């Protein structure tokens, strides 16, 4: 893929909000708004030139946008993490963008770096890192590599629809199995069940754990909030199948959105525990960069009677702003309402016997190139 020039960051203009509210809803999409990203230098507005072009453009927009999967050959696949708020050191995202279309997704702004919209493009222009397994094998084979806590799918769903055909995530897990490198993964998809044959043997040796994200038990709310993700009941079935296979399963009740899914917090935890989850964590909604106007537009379209109340409570948990990126509070929020949410979560998790700590995986089993060479050398010296 071509390199996209990076321009100085500027505030996201609110000018498109009124126009986006008038846009029709798109079935199966989180947003119909092709929001301009923060690096865009040009501001375009439709106009009628008398030749009917504007009418043609409106007709074209009425058609459901198809998903396009674009293949990319990446140079590296491991991304480092320096945030103390996240419980892993490295991450692998086999795809960029996500067809699930979750309106609240904090990864939407990553499409800006591709000169694509964090709005509709994020859901319809999916970048597939087709050589991910090759790059991972190269990284693990390097003599300088030391095993670290690895997560799959932190900024995309590794089991979104494109995975059914491409199998990139499965190839990545096969490499982890080959090198006995531990990993965790998080998903909203039931597609992870396909790979139980790979994950279960690793889990039996404390090398794998899976976290399933359940944001609501209400299928109607899930349909508008996460339009192409698995239904809540399907996710509970996924937890049951993973747990039955002996795989440690955690539930992520994230993000918690005040007055939308927040009243369900305890019920979600109870349903997940009943399905076989053994641990849990929760994150308060984050609205970084372009996610903020997209989420507010979505609120106005689907929950106009609650929109002002939801945003007011979010600001109370974000120090008066729409978002806070400060380490130590960006995942949990701050203030009295954030504290009450944490107390509710801790009390419910403790009552249900759900661990609040992540599963500790074993890094010592990694088959490093250095170790294999040392073993081979020692064996050769015997002869």
TrEMBL record:
InterPro entries: Elp3/MiaA/NifB-like_rSAM (IPR006638), MJ0683-like (IPR040086), rSAM (IPR007197), rSAM_sf (IPR058240). Pfam families: Radical_SAM (PF04055). GO terms for molecular function: catalytic activity; iron-sulfur cluster binding; metal ion binding. Keywords: Iron, Iron-sulfur, Metal-binding. Gene3D superfamilies: 3.80.30.30. SMART domains: Elp3. SUPFAM superfamilies: Radical SAM enzymes. Transmembrane segments: none annotated. It comes from the Bacteria. Residues 82-322 form the Radical SAM core domain. Signal peptide: none annotated. This is Radical SAM protein. It comes from Pseudaquabacterium pictum.
């Amino acid at each position: 893929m071509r390199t996209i020039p990076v321009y100085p960051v500027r505030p996201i203009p609110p000018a498109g909000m009124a126009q986006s509210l008038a846009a029709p809803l798109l079935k199966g999409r989180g947003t119909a708004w092709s929001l301009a990203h923060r690096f865009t230098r040009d501001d375009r507005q439709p106009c009628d030139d008398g030749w009917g072009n504007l009418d043609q453009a409106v007709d074209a927009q009425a058609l459901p946008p198809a998903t396009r999967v674009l293949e990319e050959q990446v140079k590296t696949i491991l991304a480092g993490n320096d945030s103390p708020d996240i419980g892993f050191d490295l991450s692998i995202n086999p795809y960029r963008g996500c067809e699930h279309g979750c309106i609240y997704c904090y990864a939407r702004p990553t499409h800006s770096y591709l000169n694509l919209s964090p709005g509709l493009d994020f859901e319809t222009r999916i970048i597939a890192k087709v050589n991910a397994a090759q790059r991972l094998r190269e990284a693990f084979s390097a003599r300088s590599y030391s095993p670290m806590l690895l997560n799959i799918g932190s900024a995309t769903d590794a089991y979104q629809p494109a995975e059914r055909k491409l199998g990139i995530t499965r190839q990545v897990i096969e490499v982890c199995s080959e090198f006995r490198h531990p990993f965790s993964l998080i998903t909203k998809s039931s597609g992870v069940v396909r790979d139980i044959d790979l994950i279960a043997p690793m889990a039996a040796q404390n090398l794998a754990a899976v976290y399933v994200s359940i944001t609501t038990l209400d299928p109607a709310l899930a349909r508008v909030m996460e339009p192409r993700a698995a239904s809540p009941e399907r996710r509970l079935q996924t937890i049951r199948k993973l747990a039955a296979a002996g795989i440690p399963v955690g539930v992520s009740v994230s993000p918690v959105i005040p007055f939308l899914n927040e009243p369900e917090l305890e019920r979600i935890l109870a349903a997940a525990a009943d399905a076989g989850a053994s641990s849990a964590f929760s994150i308060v909604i984050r609205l970084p960069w372009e996610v903020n106007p997209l989420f507010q537009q979505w609120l106005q379209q689907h929950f106009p009677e609650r929109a002002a109340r939801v945003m007011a409570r979010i600001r109370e948990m974000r120090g008066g702003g729409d978002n806070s990126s400060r380490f130590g509070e960006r995942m949990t929020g701050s203030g009295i309402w954030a504290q009450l949410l944490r107390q509710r979560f801790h009390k419910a998790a403790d009552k249900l016997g759900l661990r609040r700590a992540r599963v500790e995986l074993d890094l010592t089993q990694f088959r490093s190139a250095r170790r294999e060479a040392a073993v081979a050398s020692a064996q050769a010296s015997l002869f």
